[in-house]
Write a structure and sequence with these properties.
There is one protein chain. By secondary structure, this protein is α+β, with helices and mostly antiparallel strands. The protein has 2 domains: about 5-70, SH3 type barrels (Roll), CATH 2.30.30.100; about 75-240, Serine Threonine Protein Phosphatase 5, Tetratricopeptide repeat, CATH 1.25.40. It is about 60% helix and about 15% strand. The chain is built from 10 helices and 5 strands. The chain has helices at about 5-25, 75-85, 90-105, 110-125, 130-140, 145-160, 165-180, 185-205, 210-220, 225-240; strands at about 30, 35-45, 50-55, 55-60, 65-70. A 5-stranded antiparallel beta sheet has the order 4-3-2-1-5. β1 and β2 (about 35-45) form a beta hairpin. α6 runs parallel beside α8 (about 185-205), α7 crosses α8 (about 185-205) and α8 (about 185-205) packs parallel to α10. The chain is elongated.
């Protein structure tokens, strides 16, 4: 006599299958200016057209008509971040650039952050013209995100030792950070980057206590960007070994 599966095991199997089906049928959502919500799979952006697959049919929506989208980050985004955390800029670039080329301009936090990160990766590879082009592309694609693009331009200015220009980009962001009690995701990373860069500027000017304070602010308060936080900790440790103390 064959043993029958218990009702409990059958329930688990059904729930697992339901979860898998839900993931298979998960759709992105595109909201248009006229209020329409278009579900589908976002394929990318090309020539100011958002490419959307609805069932077996591929269609295009003018980006000028798109108000917002709901789309989880692709696996390539997480893969690029993992490579970036390891310090391997070349591998990060190999994953990140095709992703940015495909989704630049998509109004989602992850796409915007990916575009800005591309400039940082180019800087790490000492590809200054490419970095400058990447940061300018962020400005063009996300004109309402001045702070994020200014972080990129400040990084570029620091790389060129143009500290006056970098400071001008950073001061408004630091002032904003000072007024925030709890920074939301994304903003915390941006504030941490701003304090780290200001620390670099102040260290170059010889104001070491203030530089240490900036580095420690990144490490203790705005450490969402783990790569930047690690760099800030490294600089802070060097200054502490020199018996520098915060003002």
């Amino acid at each position: 006599m064959k043993a029958s599966a218990s009702p409990y095991l059958l329930l688990i199997a059904v729930l697992a299958l339901s979860g898998n089906l839900a993931r298979l049928h998960a759709e992105d959502i595109v909201v248009l200016k006229d209020g329409q919500r278009r579900p589908g799979v976002i394929l990318g952006i090309a020539k100011e057209q958002l490419k959307l697959k609805v069932g077996p049919v591929e269609t295009s929506v003018p980006m000028a008509q798109v108000v917002s989208v709901t789309m989880d980050p692709p696996k390539a985004y997480a893969d690029a971040l993992e490579q970036w955390k390891t310090g391997d800029a070349a591998k990060t670039l190999a994953i990140l650039k095709p992703l940015v080329d495909k989704f630049l301009g998509l109004p989602t936090p992850w796409a915007e952050r990916a575009a800005a990160l591309l400039g940082d990766v180019y800087l790490a590879l000492d590809k200054i013209p490419d970095a400058e082009a990447a940061f300018k592309a962020v400005q063009t694609a996300y004109p309402n995100s001045d702070s994020l693009s200014n972080i990129g331009l400040a990084r570029l200015a620091v790389a060129k030792s143009d500290y006056a220009s970098a400071r001008g980009k950073l001061v408004p962001i630091l002032e904003e950070a000072a007024s925030v009690k709890v920074a939301p995701a994304g903003k915390s990373a941006m504030y941490g980057q701003a304090f780290y860069l200001m620390g670099v500027i102040r260290e170059s000017e010889g104001t070491l206590p203030e530089a240490l304070q900036d580095y420690l602010t990144t490490v203790t308060l705005f450490h969402e960007d783990e790569v930047v936080a690690a760099k800030a900790q490294e600089r802070a440790d060097i200054l502490i070994e020199k018996n520098v103390i915060v003002p």
